[in-house]
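A quick word before the example. In earlier lectures we treated sequence and structure as two separate objects. From today on, think of them as two lines of the same record. Here is rRNA processing protein Krr1/Pno1 written that way.
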Amino acid sequence: MDEEIQLISDGDGLAVIGDPTTVEHFLASEGLPSKDLGLQRLGSALNTGAAVAQSGSEIAANSGRWVKLTKESAQAINKYGLRESKKSGLSTGVLKGNKGQIKGFVEFVKGPGSLLSNPAILAGAAGIMAQVAMQQTMDEITDYLATIDEKVDDVLRAQKDAVLARMIGVGLVIEESMTIREKRGRVDEVTWSKVQTAPTTIAETQAYALRQLDAVTEKLERNTKVGDLAKAAKEAETRGREWLAVLARSFQLQDAIAVLELDRVLDVSPEELDGHRLGLRAARQTRLELIARSTEHLMARMGTAVGTANTKVLLHPSKAPAVVQSSNRVSMAIVEFHERLGIEGARQSSEARRWADAAKEVRDKALETGVDRVDTAKRLGNETFDRARSATGKLSNRIADKALRRHGDEEA
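And the structure line, produced from the sequence above:
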């Protein structure tokens, strides 16, 4: 007897729906790690309409797993050729096989046996997928904030600005609402009323953090003397990491609000869920691009500072390497920050990509070999400079040669 699984991709993740055993066999055969999608929530949320009621038993009988789309997992599913809907942005398809051996591809199956043929169920599943993807990013940010030296709450408390202080309270309210949602399985009117005004506070905080990060960048741009650059680079290293932490926390809270918002729409206006999901996705992408531009600008300016320092290393043998080390630490912090938020390298400038690639490569090597931070910074300075500043390196060599020749002439 044929078995089938239904696939839904929204570009961020893949939902694999079907008989639990068949789903597990498919995921194991493709080597895809997954987590529970929570598909059963749709049974109680979409409780109106004959078509939905008819699919209730199908929802209960099926298992749903979610796979994060990475380069590897995307390659694993691309071979199946899912069909994309321009209206919803979703790619769907049904795979069939026998005894857990999924082989062939059926473009689309209509009928009571397919959840994909029911627009309400498909929209609901896509909404849950968006929530799971954002919760995955939220977990990544939690790990990121736990590993950096500066704790975000400490950074916020150290600020006198009222906007930053308010975000601490907003964060507590949102976390409380997420806990209630987890226990109840929905977001009722009382819970939603607690967080309705939170987006304004979070947006103000995020905008403030971006302005502060830009101010750090501008200070680097104003200084050309190596001594001043060293001071500005050190400040960028310290303040930059602090403001990255604030940005990460604000983005995490925005994702939490979106998770609550999707639940609320699913509860009161399920017919509007698909459009609301697409709107939230577009707004989230806009925020990512804004953050990416600001952080890439800082990374590029740090790279320019390194180039300036390296051309004057003979005149400033102690301060020039300090600029390089600070730049390396900032670059690695931004690379880590981008990875946690899911900012793809394809959206970075070519200049930022060169620095990011070098930073990531040396960081990964350091993690594998257990090299301490000082050694990592030294090696990263060399490798990053070789990759992204080869022209400046040649200039430094010419300056060094001329200096040595002048010194030799004077001795003669």
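Notice the following. The first helix runs from residue 20 to 30. We will return to this example when we discuss secondary structure assignment.
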